[in-house]
Design a protein that fits this description.
The chain is of the alpha/beta class and 324 residues long. It has a single domain, classed as 3-Layer(aba) Sandwich (Rossmann fold), CATH 3.40.50.1110. It has twelve helices and nine strands. The radius of gyration is 20 Å and the shape is globular.
Length: 324
């Protein structure tokens, strides 16, 4: 009988490093010249300026890079600013955290939800994540195939190296990435195949993960809040063409069919479960000033401020109605 080799695999868990503080370059088209601060708390959630509160977390924003917004100034990221505006208006002291992680598809966000957010028992979780899912599922048959691997084979030598690196050079890749025009997600999409006839499969896959998210929140007594996704079609089309991710036919399918169907699905789920829905696409979709001109998707400082206003107005109205 062979000796037990011990644990040889682990779950791939993508998060921002806890208690980290790094400086990131602002967007090239931004008027901001000063570096952007990206700071996290003990849970690896992004925090706002001077936000070192150890009080109970009330609101958690979840999603991918469109929530993380690492290139937006920390005092203007909407997960921080929207709740600050709400607190200023209602004289409340709600504590919010930004649990967005660039590149995370919804199945990975659900891992973060069950392992990191649920134990904190927040009152609300606001989800804004789906466009990366649409691209990923356009290029892969399901959430369980493709480059987003969930199981890693442990390598003692590699793990030792990573441990030493993280001890002496924490956040090394994040620091270096600002000097390199590289996106692992873009590279992943370029190397994958596209199936334009699979709209029903793509939406079905996303719907199942959205159901997991909603029901997990409800089971644990957390109120989920959904948002529709936004993009500026012409800017996004130019970026997809430039990056070589899709050809013209695929781009038209993605922008004209898939994304509108996606937002319809999100609205249907919000109605079915009678949960709040914030329609961000009504604010963003036609305004070039609100998004990065290089991709038509990630918010600028101004865009994030406008989203903060919309979210805070919605929540203020919701909380006031609940009191009456």
């Amino acid at each position: 009988m062979e000796d037990d080799p011990g644990i040889s695999r682990s779950i791939n868990f993508k998060e921002n490093n806890p208690l980290s503080l790094v400086k990131v370059s602002p967007y090239e088209d931004s008027n901001e010249k000063k570096p952007v601060i990206k700071q996290t708390d003990i849970h690896g959630f992004l925090i706002g300026p001077g936000d070192n509160s150890k009080d109970k977390i009330d609101v958690v924003f979840m999603g991918a890079s469109t929530v993380e917004l690492e290139n937006v100034q920390e005092n203007k990221r909407f997960p921080y600013l929207s709740i600050k505006k709400l607190n200023d208006s209602l004289n409340t002291k709600l504590v919010s955290r930004n649990a967005g992680v660039g590149g995370n598809i919804l199945s990975m966000t659900n891992l973060l939800l069950t392992t990191k957010v649920v134990p904190l028992n927040p009152k609300y979780v606001i989800l804004s994540s789906s466009l990366i899912d649409m691209i990923y599922l356009s290029k892969n048959k399901s959430y369980w195939t493709g480059s987003k691997k969930y199981l890693n084979r442990n390598n003692p030598k590699t793990d030792t190296y990573k441990g030493i690196k993280n001890m002496f050079f924490p956040n090394l890749w994040l620091q270096l990435r600002k000097y390199a025009n590289f996106s692992e997600d873009l590279e992943m999409f370029k190397q994958s195949k596209f199936s334009p006839m699979d709209k029903s499969r793509i939406l079905d896959q996303y719907e199942k993960q959205l159901e997991v998210f909603i029901n997990t929140c409800l089971i644990y007594g957390i109120s989920p809040i959904l948002t529709t996704d936004y993009h500026v079609p012409m800017l996004m089309k130019a970026n997809l063409q430039k990056q070589g991710i899709f050809n013209n036919k695929e781009i038209q399918f993605y922008l004209n069919e898939l994304i509108p169907s996606l937002n319809n699905l999100i609205e249907q789920k919000a109605g079915c479960y009678n949960i709040p829905l914030i329609k961000l696409h009504e604010l963003i979709d036609r305004n070039n000033n609100f998004v990065n001109i290089n991709d038509g998707l990630h918010l600028t400082n101004l865009g994030s401020e406008k989203v903060s206003e919309k979210i805070s107005f919605y929540l203020i109205d919701k909380f006031q109605n609940e009191k009456n």
